[in-house]
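Before relying on records like the one below, remember that each one covers exactly one chain. Contacts with other chains, cofactors or solvent are not represented anywhere in the record.
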Amino acid sequence: MENIGFALSRGGAREENYMSMIKVDRLSKIYQTYDRREGVWGGVVDLFSREYRDFLAVDGISFSAEEGELIGYIGPNGAGKSTSIKMLTGILQPTSGSMEVYGYHPFKQRKQYTKHIGVVFGQRTQLWWDIAVIESFKLLAKIYEVDPASLKRRLDLLNDILDLGPLLRTPVRKLSLGQRMKCDLAASLIHEPKVLFLDEPTIGLDAVAKDAIRHFLRQINQDFKTTIILTTHDLNEIEELCKRVILLDEGKILYDGSLRHVRSLPGLGRSLLIDFAGDAPLDEINNLFPGRAEFVQESQRRVKTVFVPETISAAELIKAILERYSIADLTISEPSIEQVIMRIYRDGLPGGESAGQVAQV
């Protein structure tokens, strides 16, 4: 049965032999670069003599992704995210290693391969600037060999999710950034791709537009089982959308696993916020848990502690306090994704675990 108009026929041996949607094995990319000499004379010398050096942008990364996964692909600037995405989309040829997406080699089989993927780069549009959005969609449909009936059906579905109707007759240059991103996302799905690569799709958008895009990504991922690789610096976006993250730094994968697991790694604490019915008895509370939990005062009636579950459990903390004091409210919170990622970048994986030990959790 067709999946609400977004089923994709693979056919033949590709269907039977198909395993992971994405398979990457020891993928590397080396650029040649040189240091420019200073001054005018230095520029003249550079014309005739340059000292080249190799820059390792992606350093032997390996991972796989199954159908319907929504993976957060994150890291600081220069970590290798965009370079590896460009290799996976067939724009760049890798220096070494292997990759396969939906049974295709992205660079060697680029013409056939691009019919099965969608790509959105945040500040670059695939729409034609001076013509109406609907005309861009029709041109893309011609390029991807989508027949008019299928195009209409897909646009009807996308319109239900993204509310494209008021935008279709508008020239792209007159759209706001948020409106253009909606249209770019729709354009990337015209040909029913099974894999969607998104590089900073919400960059520069306001909170309302970001929320609309996130809702859209959740819906297509759940309804159509589209595999999505999402690159973003917005960690709230990762937290809302992704169960799995791949964390890169200096071209290497530092962590590949679930958000739930990385938050529970040894050395990362939960926080407990307590509001007392009266004044907070700070000294008394700290004497209850010497060496295991230290409370600090945040206001006259409020105290807070960050505790490590391996040292003392939340249940033990709360039980001891409720038995002794009158409590107005209390809140337990997990470490935020910002705290987790900054901790990994600064100190490595908590508890001395290696990336290999936690990969694919």
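The chain has two domains: 12-23+65-260, 270-334.
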